[in-house]
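Entry 14. Ran structure prediction on the chain below.
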Amino acid sequence: MFPDSLQARLHRSGVIAVLIIEDADTAVPLAQALLAGGVDAIELTLRTPSALESLRRIHREVPDLLLGAGTILTPQQAAEAKAAGAAFGVAPGMNPRVVDEATRIGLPFAPGVCTPTDIELAVERGCRALKLFPAEQSGGLAYLRAVAAPFSHLGVRFIPLGGITPANAETYLVEPSVLALGGSWLAPRDLVRARDWAALTELARDASELVSRTRAA
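Output, structure tokens:
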């Protein structure tokens, strides 16, 4: 589901900014602000009426950004996200119908998992990049290590999301099974609503420096 080249790019990025965009007019400047700070991968969640239009605008105007769509809950949303320009899709859970549609249309897809059964179902359908959600609330890094161990020989990699902050990001980034982190802290709604692009760039810069420092070591 995730080609090696896409996995390699996500690993280099280290963090994927998770965005909830309420006004499509903020989509491009927000994406540009994150990119200016060194964060070049995003997951734009399909939680608002403006989400698909925001995807289209970012795809058209910020081509250097690796554009993902999140909260894909139905097969139709998978198709809409790909048509809007998403390079990959993410879901909070493991819905076989959604995974099958993503496979059919050629959309690299990371379903959400939380239990060994979830992982088995995802692996059975060819998924090797999986979103661990909610990461911290499920037991954090200790839980990730335990649940990942039986599948490590299959090349399964995880994108933890939920409770990840700059305070605990480093411990996840050094974990071999972690592909990248989902970072909802990178685009707080109050800063987006205030259109404080400079502050958002600074958050992105701090995150990208953390990734460089941690993974270089």
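The first strand starts at residue 15 and ends at 19. Will compare against last week's run tomorrow.
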